[in-house]
Design goal:
Helix content is 43%, strand content 6%. The chain is mainly alpha-helical. A 3-stranded antiparallel beta sheet has the order 1-2-3, with helices on both faces. A hairpin with a 5-residue loop joins strand 1 and strand 2. The protein starts with 5 loop residues before the first helix and ends in a 14-residue tail after the last helix.
Length: 189
């Protein structure tokens, strides 16, 4: 047989067909990987948003617990109308016998996982309330069910309601008439 016979052409055509199929399979594999990657990214984004909304709900719960504990501390001895000076005084109130516990435990900020709350004080150093130190933008609903998307969670103030005594000017500044007052966003991004 000669080297350019018809059998060689058939084998060359089969080989070329295999290479064309291999290239098509490779392109299909790349397309499938791109689609799967997009799906994983979308699931990751939803999971991140859900996790942040859960931290926001936990921030509201913990902030309200601290706010309520401040009110209980203040109202525990109506004649004194004193505010605590630290969060530790909410854990163990030694002003009476037996000691009272207005706050079950020291709650860390759910965004920072530390006890780094920003303490809001009156003119005499009394603790009026707290807010988070995290500069994270909210994705869900804030305290009182208000839509808070775009606000910083650090703008959410948890301030004790006025007791039987007249509220101080500092309390009015922080409260704005409610336990939670969002401050307007001062920066536009």
């Amino acid at each position: 047989m000669r080297s350019g016979s018809r059998g060689d052409h058939v084998h060359a055509g089969v080989r070329a067909s295999r290479y064309r199929h291999a290239g098509f399979t490779y392109l299909m594999l790349l397309a499938a990987l791109a689609i799967a990657g997009t799906g994983v990214a979308a699931v990751g984004e939803r999971w991140t948003a859900a996790a942040q909304r859960e931290r926001e709900r936990e921030l509201i719960f913990r902030g309200e617990q601290i706010r309520t504990a401040i009110e209980r501390y203040r109202d525990a001895l109506p004649e004194a109308q004193a505010l605590p000076t630290s969060l530790d005084e909410l854990l163990v109130d030694r002003r009476s016998t037996p000691p009272r516990h207005h706050l079950r435990r020291a709650y860390p900020d759910p965004f920072t996982q530390q006890l780094d709350w920003v303490l809001l004080r009156d003119g005499q150093g009394g603790l009026l309330g707290v807010h988070s130190s995290a500069p994270v933008r909210a994705r869900g609903r804030g305290p009182k069910g208000a839509l808070a998307t775009g606000q910083r969670v650090s703008d959410w103030r948890f301030v004790a309601h006025a007791g039987t005594a007249a509220p101080t000017d500092a309390a009015q500044q922080y409260r704005g008439g409610t336990a939670f007052t969002p401050t307007p966003d001062k920066e536009t991004e």
